[in-house]
Structure formats: structure tokens, C-alpha cells
Specification:
alpha/beta; Rossmann fold; Dihydrodipicolinate Reductase, domain 2; 2 domains; NADP binding; NAD binding; NADP
Length: 274
């Protein structure tokens, strides 16, 4: 009997998400090998100490691709998607993107789709810290009448964003809408907080027909963030609410984000056609 092939993945970035993936795969022991991590110049030595000698730590995309991964997982930033996504897909390597706010630029999204179609690679967009996207994907086969996504985080999670200049975040005492608009603007103005706004749009009614609200809520349980997805269509209505733990060292990102990425990678292993 032939030995089962193991999935080789490479990570862009070594922040909270990548660290969670390392821990999960170490515990669950799926048929997945993390073969390399791409980090910013000057961070290789520090990162190498953390990941161990069996994982290559590199500072260029060229070096990362030499490791011949089956999937490159972006866990860094929208800029990483813009800088390297097309090259990865052109090489026929699957590209998993969590900083989907970069696709608030329709031209970039179309360029990456075209590169994937030409090479046979897959552009993989995990659901991130939101539930209900399977229902949204099904409902868009009919007629979507309204799609609204609300991201709810404690006031301090919005520090370092435009909300910091428009609101006195520490003084907020009740749930306060700090942004109301369209996904592309949410992803551009809040690149570390609102990537899922674009994910919802791509899975549903599109960038121009999806409504977004970002909320600073001091009443959330400590260490959590939340989201709400509301869909009205000719097939019915969907309302999904989520309350989840934030990353211990990064309140802008939910733990579920990393878990959905891990689950998607494990589904690839379980599939028969990868």
C-alpha cells in the first residue's frame, strides 16, 4: 500500500495566527508539514529559535518557493497579498489568503483569479472568524436582497485605526458604531480589523451591495470579540451571531480565524483530489 502523501505548507508571517497553526498541527498531528516561514528582514534568527531547526525560516519569497510547498498560507498583511500573491499562483501553488481586505481592489482580485485559472492553482479564502458563509454562498444562487456584516470588538481593539482620531476610545461606555459603509473602504481603513468585510462581499452580493458596520463595544466579555451576519434573500433570511475569544496578544484577531485556516488545510488533506 502506497504511503499517503503529506501536505507541505509554507507560511508568510510569524504572528499570532502562524503560532496557533504550529501549536494545532503539533497537537492534532494531521498529515501536514510546515516546511518554511517567510519573515521580514532581520527577524529570521529570532523566528528560527521559536520554530526549531526542522522548519526553514527565510526572508525572500524566492527562498520560500524553493521549498516547493503545496500551499502558501498568508498570515501577515494585505501588503503581502499584493506583493506576492500573483507570483505564488502563477507558479501553480495554492494560495490561502486571510487578509482579504486586499481584494477590496477588484483589479487585484481579478488578476489573482486569472493567474490561478491559468496555472491550475487555487486561491483559497477561509471563512475566518465568522459563521454562516456556507448559507450565504447557497443563498446567492437565488436573489440576494440585503447582506450586512457587523464586526464588534472592544474599544481598545480599534486603537491604531482611524477610529482613534474620531472617537475617544477609552471613554466609550456603550456599543458605538465607528464605521458604516462598504467593504472596500472598511478593509482599506481598518486593514487589521475588517478583512472579513471583504470576504463576506466576495461570498455574497459583491463589494457594492454589502453593508458593513464596525462597532466598539465595551460591554463585551473580557478577551472576546463578536460578529453578526444578516442576509435577506428570495430563499429566506439568515442571521448568525458569533461571540469568540480574541488572540491573547492580539485583540484585533479572533482565535477562530486561525482555527478555520487550520480546518481548511486539514480538509485539503482529507480530500482525494489535492
Amino acid at each position: 500500500m502506497a504511503r499517503k502523501k503529506r501536505l507541505k505548507i509554507a507560511l508568510i508571517g510569524y504572528g499570532a495566527i502562524s503560532q496557533t497553526l504550529f501549536d494545532l498541527f503539533r497537537e492534532k498531528k494531521p498529515d501536514i508539514d510546515i516546511v518554511g516561514v517567510l519573515v521580514r528582514p532581520g527577524r529570521a534568527k529570532e523566528t528560527q529559535t521559536k520554530v526549531g531547526r526542522k522548519v526553514a525560516v527565510v526572508e525572500t519569497l524566492k527562498a520560500l518557493l524553493k521549498l516547493k510547498p503545496d500551499v502558501v498560507v498568508e498570515a501577515a498583511s494585505q501588503q503581502a497579498v499584493r506583493d506576492w500573491g500573483e507570483t505564488i499562483l502563477e507558479r501553480g501553488i495554492d494560495f490561502m489568503v486571510i487578509a482579504t481586505g486586499a481584494y477590496g481592489d477588484p483589479k487585484l482580485y481579478k488578476k489573482h483569479i486569472k493567474a490561478a485559472e491559468k496555472s491550475g492553482a487555487r486561491l483559497r479564502l477561509p471563512s475566518g472568524a465568522i459563521a454562516g458563509l456556507d448559507g450565504l454562498l447557497a443563498m446567492r444562487l437565488g436573489k440576494l436582497e440585503r447582506v450586512k456584516y457587523v464586526s464588534i470588538k472592544p474599544p481598545h481593539a480599534w486603537s491604531g485605526t482611524p477610529a482613534e482620531t474620531e472617537f475617544d476610545l477609552p471613554s466609550i461606555k456603550e456599543p458605538t458604531v465607528i464605521f458604516r459603509g462598504k467593504p472596500a473602504d472598511a478593509g482599506r481603513l481598518y486593514p487589521k480589523n475588517a478583512n472579513l468585510a471583504v470576504t463576506v462581499a466576495l461570498c455574497g452580493a459583491g463589494l457594492q451591495h454589502t453593508d458593513i458596520e464596525l462597532v466598539a463595544d465595551p460591554t463585551l466579555p473580557a478577551g472576546t470579540n463578536a460578529s453578526r451576519l444578516e442576509v435577506v434573500s428570495d430563499s429566506g433570511e439568515l442571521k448568525m451571531e458569533r461571540l469568540g475569544l480574541a488572540m491573547p496578544d492580539n485583540p484585533k484577531t479572533g482565535v477562530l480565524t486561525a482555527l478555520t485556516m487550520a480546518d481548511d488545510l486539514m480538509k485539503i488533506v482529507r480530500a482525494s483530489d489535492w
